[in-house]
Amino acid sequence: MSVPRGGRTGASRSGRTEATKQKLFDAALRLVGERGAAGVTVDEIAAEAGVAKGTVYYNFGSKDALVEALLRHGVDLLSERLRRASALTDPSAALEATVDEALGFFAEYPSFAQLLVSEMWRTPGAWRETLELLRDDIALILRGVLDRLAESGRLPAGVQPATAAAALFGTLLVVALDWHVFHPERTKEDVRESVIVLIRGVAGQSGR
């Protein structure tokens, strides 16, 4: 199959754009995680990413738009990992796998957990509406696994999947933040086991 004239150039340009956005994502996360979104300037983000200030405006238009894109991009990355984990056939294994993936993601991007926690409960927040939608995306994935547990008879009576999904998401966020800020010496395996003990109770398991 022949490549249309300019097609390869377009693909190359798209790849460079995504690489630049990833650099800005990583740079903004480092700075926002240290000082909060309000305390970071576009100049600082550009300098941290090693790009011109105009590159930030070209790709996002403003700092607020960059932070919103940062939130969306981070949740997209997390959602992709959780969806893969939630696809496991056994719902109990799928639930544990989602915990693994979430903790692995927050270990890789600890500042993202800090950003989510700080902005999600800020009242009023500049990105509150966006964050509510993003929270719902994650909760929906978790609820899908919990619905499967309920259908298999392994969810304790009285536990509502929607409420449990919200509680699990909140637990993972707070645990990840506590791990990053107060107990960085703990390994992911230690943190995982602490969460899994709780999860196995919800999944109707006594252990393996």
TrEMBL record:
Entry annotated with the keyword Ribosomal protein: no
Residue ranges: DNA binding: 41-60
A Pfam family it matches: TetR_C_24
Organism encoding this protein: Streptoalloteichus hindustanus
GO MF terms, alphabetically ordered: DNA-binding transcription factor activity; transcription cis-regulatory region binding
SUPFAM superfamilies, alphabetized: Homeodomain-like, Tetracyclin repressor-like, C-terminal domain
Record flagged with keyword 4Fe-4S: no
PROSITE patterns recorded: HTH_TETR_2
Protein name: Transcriptional regulator, TetR family
Residue span(s) of domain HTH tetR-type: 18-78
Keyword field: DNA-binding
InterPro entries tied to this protein: Homeodomain-like_sf (IPR009057), HTH-type_TetR-like_transc_reg (IPR050109), HTH_TetR (IPR001647), KstR2_TetR_C (IPR041490), Tet_transcr_reg_TetR-rel_C_sf (IPR036271)
